[in-house]
Structures are given as structure tokens and as C-alpha cells.
Design brief:
This protein is an all-alpha fold and about 425 residues long. The chain has 14 helices and two strands, in the order ααααααααααααααββ. The protein is globular and about 55 Å long.
Length: about 425
């Protein structure tokens, strides 16, 4: 394993600095394999539902069933991540997801998979994911020093995008030559690969250690309630939730707003929207690289980027031509991606180590509300104001709300949050000195 840089050396701002550590390199490889397998399965799953039912509505139902547990159980999953050893939790959850994928593959191969079975398997996958998602996210952060966590998150975003592209491409090849079951079988193997890598991961010097306290192991602490209380009483986390929420509802759903804008007022076709989508993807990758260079992310930075994205969205809504829109889409995607990386870094490092799983659990539930409620709300806005109006109004709401929140924040002095420890109470301290 690589050693941490000596104090005499200048702090690195390379977006790849997290990859200096051997365990992080192995974890990135494992995540790439897992993401490729997951996107192979997701690519064919909708086609499989259509083959079984012939109904587009059933396809949406299967996706909702898999997402629903995050709304109801993410807090419990986060509590489990805090209570159990991180590596063991990640390895077991990956193994369970692999078993589900293999089960689905066998049912598909034997032509025994019906809609009921598929929905049950999707629901079980969603339940396991409420534990697996925070466990794997925090395990990656545990491998690098605190100042390199933004780099680890940025590398993870790049790995996710690369896995998505490769997985979607491999899905067509696998299904064409081996059948639909092959995609599920490959995904099962990818989960087992991750589970086999986890036991060999070692944290780098300076990494934050995750210790499971005795009162957490025996369940005597009110773990879920403590996580909810911390989140609700932490001003910077509430501010981050507000910024992310309004951005998720009135912006970011560019697959909906820009599709209508391109094919409607700008008189483009499917090919034109494909070009816009490609530029969005390129901007997301560039933003992830820039976000990985951050060393001291803050909610203030997230808010500033989100407000800038809102203003860019306003200008995009007024675009007179497709060329102008494409020129605006790239910085929109870059700003969004950097904001996401900074926000994720704050979310995963601001709470003390023994509360991070529960905080991510709360965030998972809140984020599911945004994910389910944002598109319908935006659709209603588009019906009332059309695509241009939705982009302009949404962007102004984002920038205006963030600006108002900043002014209110400057007029109040936040009270310290007291954390319960074995020796009493102490004020919370951010791991990265993040500023609200």
C-alpha cells in the first residue's frame, strides 16, 4: 500500500490523488466491474418486463417497486451500517445482491420468471440496497485520508459513468449471443468479485477509522433516532438538503425539459436531442474530474454552484437556436457535476464517523422523495408554462431560494450540535472543516 505524502510535501490537488493508495485502486476496479454488471442488468430488465407483460406501465412499476424501500427503510439501513463492521456489511450485502441476480438468471433461463416473481426480487433488491449503498459509499471513503475524500468521490463518479457505458454496450452483446439470462448472471459475478475484494482492503495512513461502539453493537443506543436528530439539528446538512431538493425538483431533470425544448420550440429531432444528451454526459465527466480536485468542499460552494446552474438554466430556456443551447448545456452539466461531488463530500464527512451511516440513510429517504416527486411537479410546471417557461421559472426559483437562504444564514448564529459519547456530550466537528 502506498504511504501518505510527507508533511513537507505540498498538498496535492490532482483529481486522481486518491488512486495513490493501493486499496483505493482495487476498490475502484471492483466498483467498475460492479457498475458494468449492474448496467448490463438494468439495460435488459425493462426489455424483459415488456416481454413478459407487453406493458410500459408494468416497466415503470418494476422500477418503482425497487426504489420504494429506499423511501421507507433507508434510515434503518443506515443504522445497520453504523452498528456493524463496515467491511463485513459491504461484503455480505454484495453477496446477497449477487444471490438475487443469480436467482433471477436461473428463473429467466428456465423460463419460469413471471411478473410476480420479478417484482418480489426487485423489492428484495431494494431492501438490500438500503444497506449496501451507504456501506459501499463509506467504505471507499474509509480507505483514504480525509483531505482526499473529494478525490475518492470524484473517482467514484467517473467509475460509475465508465461502468454505465461499458455495461450498456456489453448488455447488447451478451443478450445477442447468450440470451437475457447472461446479463443477470454477469451481474451476479460482478457482485461476488466485489465481495471477494473487500476483505483485502486496508485504510491508508490518516484515514478516518470507523469504530463500532459497544452501545451500538448491543443495540442499547437509539441509533435511528440519534441519526434523525443529528441531521435535523445540523444547519449545514439542512441547508444542503434544501439546496439539493430545490435543484432536484426545478432543475436537473434535463432528460425531460430539454427533450421537450429541443423537439418543440427549437424544431429538432431525436438526433438533435441525442447530441444534447452526449454533451450533458461529457460535461458530467469533466465536472467529476474538477470536483475531484476539491480539498475543502462546503455547503456554501454547493449553493453557489447550484445557483449558477439555475441561472444557466434560465439562459438555456431562452436559447434562440440549438447551437446556443448546446453551448450552454456543457457548463450546465459541469456545474451540476462539481456541485454533486462537493455535496456528497460534505454529506459523507461532516457527521462523526459513528453517525455517517444513519445520516446517509436519512439522505436516502429524502432523496427518494425528490426523485419520485420532482418529475411530476416539473411536468405540471411544463404544462402550465411550456418548456421554456419551466426552465426559466425553475432556474429563477433555484437561484432566488438559494440567495434568500444565504442572506438569512448571515443573520443568524448557529448553535453547536452536541453529540452523545461514552463520556458525555461534546460539540460536533466537521471532518473536512466544511463551512456552512
Amino acid at each position: 500500500m502506498s504511504s501518505a505524502p510527507s508533511p513537507a510535501q505540498p498538498a496535492s490537488r490532482s483529481p486522481w490523488r486518491a488512486l495513490r493508495y493501493r486499496s483505493m485502486r482495487w476498490w475502484s476496479v471492483a466498483n467498475f466491474v460492479s457498475n458494468a454488471g449492474t448496467w448490463m442488468q438494468l439495460t435488459v430488465q425493462n426489455l424483459l418486463v415488456l416481454q413478459i407483460t407487453g406493458s410500459a406501465a408494468a416497466t415503470g412499476l418494476s422500477m418503482s417497486v425497487q426504489a420504494a424501500p429506499a423511501l421507507l427503510m433507508s434510515v434503518l439501513g443506515g443504522a445497520a451500517v453504523d452498528r456493524w463492521p463496515r467491511k463485513l456489511t459491504a461484503a455480505v450485502s454484495q453477496g446477497l445482491l449477487g444471490a438475487i441476480a443469480f436467482t433471477t438468471a436461473v428463473l429467466v433461463a428456465l423460463d419460469r420468471l413471471d411478473m410476480t416473481s420479478l417484482l418480489v426480487l426487485a423489492a428484495v433488491t431494494g431492501v438490500v440496497a438500503t444497506v449496501d449503498n451507504p456501506a459501499c459509499a463509506l467504505l471507499g471513503n474509509d480507505l483514504v485520508p480525509a483531505q482526499d475524500v473529494p478525490s475518492a468521490i470524484g473517482v467514484g463518479a467517473l467509475v460509475h459513468q465508465a461502468g454505465r457505458l461499458v455495461g450498456a454496450a456489453l448488455a447488447g452483446v451478451a443478450v445477442g449471443f447468450l440470451g437475457t439470462a447472461a446479463a443477470y448472471f454477469a451481474n451476479g459475478l460482478s457482485f461476488l468479485f466485489v465481495a471477494s475484494v473487500v476483505p483485502f482492503l486496508r485504510p491508508a495512513p490518516g484515514a478516518v477509522r470507523h469504530e463500532v461502539a459497544k452501545h451500538e453493537r448491543d443495540g442499547s443506543g437509539m441509533t435511528v433516532r440519534e441519526g434523525l436528530a443529528f441531521f435535523a439539528r445540523r444547519p449545514r446538512l439542512m441547508a444542503l438538503a434544501g439546496v439539493t431538493g430545490i435543484s432536484a425538483v426545478f432543475g436537473r431533470n434535463y432528460g425531460l425539459t430539454l427533450a421537450v425544448l429541443v423537439t418543440g420550440p427549437l424544431a429538432g429531432g431525436a438526433g438533435s436531442f441525442g447530441t444534447v444528451s452526449t454533451v450533458l454526459a461529457v460535461g458530467g465527466i469533466l465536472g467529476a474530474v474538477l470536483g475531484a480536485r476539491l480539498r475543502r468542499p462546503s455547503v456554501r460552494l454547493v449553493g453557489a454552484l447550484a445557483a449558477a446552474g439555475g441561472l444557466l438554466q434560465v439562459v438555456a430556456g431562452l436559447s434562440p437556436s440549438l447551437v446556443v443551447l448546446i453551448a450552454l448545456v456543457l457548463p450546465m452539466a459541469v456545474v451540476e457535476s462539481v456541485s454533486d461531488t462537493a455535496g456528497t463530500a460534505v454529506l459523507q464527512t461532516d457527521p462523526p464517523a459513528h453517525l455517517r451511516g444513519r445520516v446517509l440513510g436519512v439522505w436516502g429517504s429524502v432523496g427518494t422523495v425528490w426523485g419520485l416527486g420532482g418529475p411530476p411537479a416539473l411536468g405540471l410546471l411544463m404544462e402550465a408554462a411550456e418548456a421554456r417557461g419551466a426552465l426559466v421559472i425553475g432556474g429563477l426559483l433555484i437561484a432566488g431560494a438559494i440567495g434568500a437562504g444565504h442572506l438569512l444564514h448571515r443573520r443568524r448564529v448557529p448553535a453547536p450540535v452536541l453529540l452523545r459519547t461514552g463520556e458525555g456530550e461534546r460539540p460536533a466537528r466537521p471532518a473536512l472543516s466544511t463551512a456552512a
